[in-house]
Each structure stands twice: as structure tokens, then as C-alpha cells.
Amino acid sequence: IGHTVGIKMQAEGVLIVQLTEVQGADGTHSPAKEAGVQEGDVLCRAGETALHSNDDLQKQVALSAGQPIKLTLERGDAEKSVTVTPCRDKTGAYRIGVLARDSLAGIGTLTYVDPQTGAFGSLGHGICDSETGVLLPLQEGSIIHSTVSSVQRGKAGEPGSLQGEFSTEKPLGTVAQNTESGIFGTITDDSLYSELQCVPVASADEIKIGDAEILSNVDGDSVQRYSVQIVKLYPANDEYGRSMMLRVTDSQLAEKTGGIVQGMSGSPILQNGKLIGAVTHVLVDNPMEGYGISMEKMLAAS
């Protein structure tokens, strides 16, 4: 596809981004930290009450009136329980000393869709919290139509980005999975692909060092083809999930964006008429180069 989309995701639980201190009448406390809560934990329940949002957590803390609360949390693949005792701050409100996140929104690029089922893949990497690096546990998500309004060009040490305008009146589909290899779901509006031709998918061993191209939407509503070169291939078990390194060779793209920028993640990579993968990351010190994931690996994750 190669078109940008707005991505909105609601977390399954409440993600702890930072532990803070509460200034109370009797001094400074950090109830969550003292109870054993860690940054990156996902709070699932307070007592028997499920936590779906920051508001849910704040309500349970307020209702505690300072009495201990049993919190059930997920840390990695393990479930744990801790008991935290809220304390009053100087305003009289009960706090446990956390900054939490329950949702994320941004722009990315739609990689592919199966026109027979509407199944899609995007980004080529997971959506993680920027503070903790934790993969956001997905409760529900959606993709919406977007156009690119401007580009912040990338330069060495400063990754650029696409600036998008979202149309909440044009929902495109739902997100069902947030994985290390991309986000996946179902498209309900075929306007982005109804007139496009399908292409075959290359197996990982068909990817070669040499010329290739990417499809990207870096201006308005237009998807263009840009030339790149595959300069390095990585083993299937690469610890960082990389399948290939690519270099932008297209002068128009270099002039427009400075290379690969945030928001281009998910741009499909084609070689010899086949879909071989998706752009995932830019090299911070050299925005003309970046990494890609093989389509074989992306489809396996879906």
C-alpha cells in the first residue's frame, strides 16, 4: 500500500511510565515504589476491579481513603500482586506516586492488505511506550485516514518525521495485534487499495543485495515509488529483529525528507516485482540508511 494512516491504540491495563514522589503533610513518600511497583509494569486490577484507563486507577485510589489496595500487575510474562497504601498530598487528594499511560496515537505507513479478507499489516515493528520501551498491551485500536501536511527533514543525530492530518470521520479499520514485528488487523474501507494490483510475496531467501524500491506517502495523499539499495542482509535470528539494511538512492526522496523519517515505518519494499519487506527504523546518525523486516517474518507474526 505505502499510504500513511493515523493509528490510535487503547492499552489493556494501565502502563506505569514513571514512579514519582508524593509531597504530603508529613513528608515525601513514593507509595508505589515502596510497594514494589516498577516502571514498565502494567496494572490490571485494583482489588477485584479491572483497570482499563488512568481514570479507573485514580478512582480506585480515591475510593481507598488511604487504606491499602491490592494491585495485580503484569511484568513481562509474569503476573504479580503488590499492596500499595495511598497517601494524601498537600491538596488532600490520595496518590500512589505514578505517571501512567493508557493510550497512544501517531502516524505510520500501511504495508499490505489481503484484498480477499481485508487483513492488513503496518509499521514492521511494535508500538512501544517512548519512556519505558515496553510494547503497549493492546485492548483495542483503530486506523484512520491521514494525509501528510508537512515533513520535518532528518539529519544526522536528529531523526525527521512526517506531520499528518487525521480524518476521524474516515475510519479505515481495526487493530487486533500489536507485536514486535508490526501491528495487524482488518480493513473495513477498501478505498486505499480497491484499484491496486496484487503482487507476489518473496521468501526471505529471494531477497538480494542490490537495487530495490519503496512505496511511501511523504506529501499530501500521494504514494510514490522511490529507489533504494539493499546493502546488507541479516540472519533470520537477528537479535534486533532486522532482516536487511537499506540505503536511499532516490534524489527526490533525499531532497524531500533527508532520507528515512519517522512515519515512514511500514513503507513496503519491493524487489524484482515482489514484496520483500517493510521499512522499520532509521539510522539516527545517517538518515539516508535504515533497517527493514522481511515480509516472511511480518506475515508469520500476523
Please outline what is shown here:
The chain is mostly beta strands and 302 residues long. Helix content is 10%, strand content 52%.
Structure characterization notes:
10% of the residues lie in helices and 52% in strands. It is mostly beta strands and 302 residues long. It has a 6-stranded antiparallel barrel. Strands 15-16-17-20-19-18 form a 6-stranded antiparallel barrel. A two-stranded antiparallel sheet has the order 2-3. Strand 4 (42-46) and strand 5 (49-50) form a beta hairpin. The longest helix has 11 residues, at 54-64. It starts with a strand and ends with a helix.
What percent of residues adopt helix (DSSP H or I)?
under 10%
Structural class, from secondary structure content? mainly beta
Main beta-sheet strand count, sense and barrel state: 6 strands, antiparallel, barrel
Q: Say how many strands there are.
A: 20
Strand order, main sheet: write it out. 1-10-11-14-13-12
End-to-end gap: 17 Å
Overall mean pLDDT: 93
What would the principal axes of the Cα set say about the shape? elongated
- Radius of gyration based on Cα positions: 22 Å
What fraction of residues sit in β-strands?
over 45%
- Total of helices: 4
Blueprint of the fold:
Blueprint: E1 4-19, E2 22-24, E3 27-29, H1 31-35, E4 42-46, E5 49-50, H2 54-64, E6 69-75, E7 78-84, E8 87-88, E9 94-95, E10 98-113, E11 119-122, E12 138-152, E13 161-179, E14 182-187, E15 210-219, E16 222-233, E17 244-248, H3 251-257, E18 268-271, E19 274-283, E20 286-294, H4 295-301
Antiparallel strand pairs: 1-4, 1-10, 1-12, 2-3, 4-5, 4-6, 6-7, 8-9, 10-11, 11-14, 12-13, 13-14, 15-16, 15-18, 16-17, 17-20, 18-19, 19-20
